[in-house]
User: What shape does this take?
Amino acid sequence: MKNRSLVSIDDFSTDEIITILDLAEEFEKQPVRKLLEGKVVATLFFEPSTRTRLSFESAINRLGGKIVGFADAGSSSVSKGETLHDTIKMVCSYSDLIVMRHPIEGSARYASEIATVPVINAGDGANQHPTQTILDLYSIRKTQGTLSNLNIFMVGDLKYGRTVHSLMMAMSRWNATFNFIAPEELKMPDEFKFYLENMGLKYYEHSDFTDIISKADIIYMTRVQKERFSDPIEYEKVKNVYVLRDSMLKNTRPNMRILHPLPRVNEIHTDVDSNPKAYYFEQALNGVFTRQAILCTLLGIEL
Amino acid sequence: MKETKQMSVSAIENGTVIDHVPAKNLFKVIQILGLDHIDSQITFGTNLESKKLGRKAIIKISGKFFEDEDINRIALVAPDAKLNIIRGYEVVEKKVVEVPDYIIGIAKCVNPKCITNFEHVTTRFRVVSKKNVALKCHYCEKITTQENMQII
Assistant: This one.
């Protein structure tokens, strides 16, 4: 996998994903390893994303690498009108690997074609965010002991949420069953349902939380954002329907864990936080280990 | 007695006749095949009557023979086109166009937020459906369908 880019989760085979998850386990045991000594990683954030950027920078620092880059486009040459093409060309000569977040869809694939060093897509608009998917897979495997034959519940904005789309596509490799809980306006798009049908996988759709969650192995929560609704009245109607509270978790399976890509607003009540089934903060920590594993893998560095 | 049909466009000795081109897409076919930049003698007729297409166009290119790969590029705008390969005024071979597996640089991505609509990037699509043509953008991964397809 040396010198390859990671643009979309589909770029990696199932075996390659497993190898990365195994490597991330090693970093969880011993996070500080000076494997990137002498390497420079460019973090180009053309739109701000504090969480993702800090997670990457933490991973790079723990590996002993150096960072160059910018945290928003306003402080970069983009504000002078430079094309993405030219920015990437220039940055390649300053760095050994590029981590890029960009609001335009497909920008990461394009950058990976121009770049002479590996590119990690840290989110390209509503398209892909593969390192989020890999950390989600890591969290699922760690809490469930396996990725196979799980019952995955996805809740909230299933229409625009790229994390749920990528995770759904990825989990389809391990014979998952899916339950989608979403308001009418934010239902899982048909193209993804066709995909599951073609794969011969089962999925069920629900418009609200019910006792059905007692069957879940994983509940993946997402934010229902006000700006996604064409009609503000619709938002007011549904905004409190998709809120998970501690009292709803009584009959859930003992192995069940709640994930959320964060930031959370009100969709998980704070009374859930102290429940041992709440896993979203550990999930964020797993992001550092998986990103360490991805950085080393793409640079061809072995433990 | 054999009925003599009047030719709307005069016959060629050697070359290719592209028939059953939808009249409205004639100039797109010319553009895609680069016929506006070649030295061959070209004659075309348009708004000819066709039972199948309503109004069709026909293009005759003298002394020019196409590779399948090249001719299939017109499948997006002329899916029913038929090719007659002419030698010595005789049709020696007939071909139909097939939608190729990949479309490069012909169609525009429908997604306004796609990088190909911001920078000078040649569009690239994988054909995910050939019957009702649907193209998946190599960059933004969104689907462009026949209804919302624009030819560059």
